[in-house]
Amino acid sequence: MNILVTGGTGYIGSHTCVELLNSGHSVIIADNLSNSRIEVISRIKQITGRQIFFYQVDVTDEEAVNSIFSSNRIDGVIHFAGYKSVTESVIKPLEYYFNNIVSTMVLIKLCLNYKVNKFVFSSSATVYGENKVPFVEDMELLPPKNPYGHTKVINEKILTDVAKANPDFSVAILRYFNPIGAHESGLIGESPIGIPNNLMPYITQVAKGKLDKLKIYGNDYPTIDGTGVRDYIHVVDLAKGHVAALEKLKKGVNIYNLGTGKGTSVLQLVHAFEEANHIKIPYEFVARRPGDIAECYADVSRAKRELGWSAERDIIQMCKDAWRFEKNNS
Ligand code: NAD
Ligand code: UDP
């Protein structure tokens, strides 16, 4: 298939392009480089030995995206492009609603116009809110605590309504848990701009000596050791989940959790990183971060049953690969 990948030079998008190419598909990337670098294109080519097409466009710009549809045969779209910082979304809600929702509407409209019937959307475990773990796809969603989360809920709703009205339009909504790690080549990975918000990039920057010590947000949660529990998934496993979702896509709306099904606490992740890479990570406990929940992990049985996909890489592998990328690239 010829797949249009929006946000394809970003963290998850770049790994997904590699897995698509490795599975024999062709890739057209549309990205405005607002949170990624052009070098990623040559790195994807280097890893796969395959050619790719790149358009530097803003996906909210209908005319620009229309010209991609009119000059390429497209069989499906994977839509990663969007803003993703929870904290920033509270400060700049309008930018978040505009970018994350208009981009989806533009793409759906063009898909319908050009009869492109396969659409895969990047959603997030944040849509479950503070539900009881493990999170199951059929659960009633609880209101997210920030504009970023709302953009995911709204996009899910738009896609569901459009699919209902257009029976040929097939949608996969993929709810990611916590992607970490990097491609084993060390050539692509996560490079946040400024001080990282997320745990793993913070740990790797402490390991590198760029940051003094990790601040652990809260040690009084009702969890195994008092620190927050998340379902960390290797980004390459997550990328492979997209290929499975695309290849096995059924008519209508198909929602899948992409996680490992296992919860890991902040302290357990810190200790795994130390064991995997033989580097001590200094840390201190500080107050809970507003908006955080105690535990978040997936029920992954639907993806296994319907897509034949499950995550294979363990926490130690995630820590080794994250550190290799950090060492090589910054
Ligand atoms: P990322 O920032 O690394 O990648 C997003 C890419 O989209 C970037 O390359 C950016 O330049 C591009 N982009 C943003 N707005 C654009 C626009 N209007 N037009 C064209 N390009 C645009 O983020 P990521 O971690 O790879 O996340 C990809 C998707 O997955 C996002 O939708 C995000 O909300 C979702 N998601 C991410 C996580 C996570 O922990 N990383 C978790 C759940 C969901
Ligand atoms: N966390 C932390 N220190 C940090 C960043 C994160 O203790 O510098 C904790 C956070 O409270 C949560 C877990 O690590 O329990 C994962 O946070 P992250 O921001 O990576 O992901 P999300 O909040 O989206 O699950």
TrEMBL record:
UniProt KW keywords: Carbohydrate metabolism, Galactose metabolism, Isomerase, NAD
EC number: 5.1.3.2
Reactions catalysed: UDP-alpha-D-glucose = UDP-alpha-D-galactose
Recorded GO MF terms: UDP-glucose 4-epimerase activity
GO biological process, alphabetically ordered: galactose metabolic process
NAD-dependent epimerase/dehydratase domain segment(s): 3-259
Pfam families per record: Epimerase
GO cellular component term of the entry, any: cytosol
Enzyme class: isomerase
Pathway: Carbohydrate metabolism; galactose metabolism
Family according to the record: Belongs to the NAD(P)-dependent epimerase/dehydratase family.
Subunit structure: Homodimer.
Lineage: Bacteria, Bacillati, Bacillota, Clostridia, Eubacteriales
CDD domains named in the record: UDP_G4E_1_SDR_e
InterPro entries according to UniProt: Epimerase_deHydtase, NAD(P)-bd_dom_sf, UDP_G4E
CC cofactor: NAD(+)
Protein name per its UniProtKB record: UDP-glucose 4-epimerase
Organism from which the protein derives: Thermoclostridium stercorarium subsp. leptospartum DSM 9219
